[in-house]
Every structure is written in structure tokens, then in C-alpha cells.
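Reading a protein record of the kind used here takes only a little practice. The record below shows the convention in full.

——
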Amino acid sequence: MQLYHTMTATQGIRPTLTPLIQLIKPLGVLDSISSVLSWDEETWMPPSGIHRRAEQSAVLAQMTHERWHSAELRNALAPHIDLTTGVVNPDYTLEESRLVSETYRQWRKKIAIPTAFATRWAALVTEAQHCWQTARDHNDYTQFAPHLDQILVAVREKAQYLGYSQHPYDALLDCFEPGMTTQRLKSVFEPLKHGLRQQLAQCSFREDRPTLPGLFDEDKQWDLGVIILKKMGFDFNRGRQDRSAHPFTTTFGVDDVRITTRFSPTDILEGLSSTIHEGGHALYEQGLKAQWADTPLGTACSLGIHESQSRVWEVVIGRHAAFWEGIHPHVQAAFPENFANIDTKTMYRYVNHVAPGPIRVSADEVSYNMHIMIRFELEQQMLQGSIDAMALRDLWNAQYQQELGVHVRDDRTGILQDVHWSAGLIGYFPTYTLGNLYSVMVFEAAQRAIPNLMDCMANLEFTSFTQWLNETIHCHGQLYDAETLIHRATGERLSATPFLDYLQNKYPITD
């Protein structure tokens, strides 16, 4: 494979990378095995299998932990990078340098966490997630708050282990969006919030949402989703789709990428959107280079970039007038009775209806990012220890009233709606907004590169767009960091301006 040819070629006294590659590739395989178990747990595993699955996952986690902490891996890294400063051999190519630096970055994070803490953390989040589900079922945050307090204590401890230079939030953010900092996010989010406040106050699409009559057969929704996935370029010979309660994408390898979706009998958009969304993630995974498989280079460079690929398909394209011009005949053919009196313009108004509500996952594209910024601000306070879990609920509800004009009626649709905090995933939420910002930048660059893109969308012909995404985003893996990759792809630096301009054009502000 080309990676081996490149990495093993020696010039003078340069050490070969072969021993390091031989050690890190099995770690990638172990991760893929863990993905198989997680996918099965969410799709086909019988309920009583959970205890055996927990044992299997624990053994895999221990094996992975021991390999990362081994002296053998440390010794394999040492010839290529200064283990104290992180400075890579300057004679290496870009591929070699990034392979070493990304392996080093992951290694530093793994060894920074003591085994005793990792064990305690696993038990803590397992119990917290179970309690969160119970509290959510009973609509009672007070059952979960003590567990969240414990998680916050542990998360602050984790941030200290990982290390940071300015804000403890940086340590956690870097786990999901490498290189991103709290200060950098603020510089992007503050103008975004200002623009969204104006947009939400005066948005012109806030009339009543059209009603879609009748029920929508799930099998027909499935068939419609498969048609769109194939047109997007999802390769069913290298992947499959299944049903799950919470749609997700997981990768066992570049030739085995799995997605799941879910359907609503009363809302055709829920199943179609989740299918397209996960399809966007899957195209990224199928577009990674096979020769980099099971190494850091063979993975997406950040969750923000990954989210940009799902959101550009689901929202920027999936809610575009040209797309609905193309898909409307397929929808009518699948559901002739439901859509007998529903034209394309009505469907366009339906999918682009703006009405701020309490639930993040069902938010329209104008209000969605405000949900994220509320969480971002609360998480920073949580990390600094300035609020406890019980006070958090009142702050949550007050922020929703202030920023979105939404009265949060209960805990289930309020502070208990997301699983992230019970899983200890603090620092994850901002990647959703980064994905939205990147998605608009990517689409606008694609329009410049593909002059007839609108016609292609109206005919559901996405070959040129998918190929462009592969060449500019997917195939590079972690060869570049997120901001460098997006600049190479679009010619622009990350900012809120393209996204705000996009909203302004799509939802004109009225006087």
C-alpha cells in the first residue's frame, strides 16, 4: 500500500515508521471491533444480552488501554518525535509528520488519564446514563442532578489530567475538535449569536406550518430513503442501513460503513432527514483512503468537519427548493393519497418552517445554533465550578426564555433532553454549530466549482457534488487540521458571516 511505501522509505539516518505502524494498526482494528458491538447493541441485540455485552466491551477497553500504555508503543514513537515537546522530525513528509503527530496527540491523551480514574469514570458514566434515562422517563431532573454533580467533579479532574493553557474547557473541546480553543469559538459564536437574534426576531417564514394529511407507511419511507442514498452515492456493497431508536453512523472499515435511521408515521421529513443526514456521514467514511486504514490519517479530522458533511446534505441540499423540485415526484409516487393536493412550494414551506421550540434535534436551521450556544455557555460555567447541577436547570430554562422566547414546560423537553452530559461528553456540543458553519462554506465553494449544481440537484444527480466532496474533504482524512482543510476547500477562513448571509438570503428579514 502507498502508505507503507511512503513511510518505510528511508533517507540517510531517518528511522523507519514500520514498527510504529505495526503497533497502531491493531489499535484501529480494536476500535472497529468495539464499533461492531455498539452497532449490534443498538440494532439487533436482545435486551437480555446487555450484561454479556458489557463484559465484552470491558475486555476490549482493557486491551486497548494496555496497548496505548505499553512501553513498546512509547519506544516506537520516540525515534520520530520529541516526547516532551511534541516536535516531529523535520525531515519527514507531510504524511509522515501528520501520522506521527496525530499518533502522539492520541497517545498523550491516553497516558494522561490514570488507570484508576479511567475505571472510576467508566462506572460513573454507566450509572449516570442509566439514571438519566430513568429521570427522563419520570420527567424528574432531581433524580439525575446528584449524578451530574459527580460527573462535573470528574470532568474537572479529567481536564486537569489532559492539561490546558487558558481554559479548562479547552482540554475537553480538543477531544472532539482538535486544535480548537474556547477563545476561538467565542470569536466565531459571538457574532453568530448577534446575527441569529436579529434573524429570529424578524424571520419571514414564521407563518403557520402546512399540514401533511394522513399517515406514511414505514416501508415506503424506507424505499424512498434508499432511492436518495443511492443517488447521493452511498455504496450498498460497502455499507448497509438499519433501523434504530436514535439514528447514527458507525464504521467497521472503509468497506463496511453502517447507518441507521428511524421513521415517524405522521411526519415524512423525520425519516427522510435522518436518512440523508447519516448518508452524509457515511459518504465521508466511504471516501477515506484505504491505504491509511486503521491509522490516524485514515479518520475524519474533526467532529465539526464530519457534521458539516451530514448537514450539507440534510439541510443545505435537503431543504433546498431545487432538491424538492427533484424529489417531489418520487414522494408523490410513494404516497399518492397524501400528496394529491400538496405541491412543491407547499412542501418547501413545510420543510423550512421556522418556529423556535425547546427541542434541539427538531429545531429549524435558524434557531438550531442557539440551542448549541446555550449549552456552550453553560458548559463553560460547569467546568469552572461556578454552578452546581440543581442551579443548572434554572439557568437552562432562563436562557431558553431569553434567547428563544421559549417557555420550558418540563424536564423531559428541557435539561433532560440530551444524553451527552450523562455520558460525560462535555465539549461535544460546539461541533454541531461548527458543522453548520462549515456546511454552508462547503456548499458555496461547490457551487463555484460546479456551475450547473442547481440543475443537478433538481434532477437528483449528485455524482459531481459527491466527487467534489471526496476530492476536497473526504480523501484527506487527518492530513490537515479542520481549519486548514476548510480553507483549502473553500478559500475562506472559519467565520459566522457565510452562514448568516445564507440565512438572510433564504429567510429575508422583513421591516
Q: What stands out?
A: The CA atoms of residues 112 and 506 lie 47 Å apart. Residues 2-170 form one domain. The first strand starts at residue 239 and ends at 243.
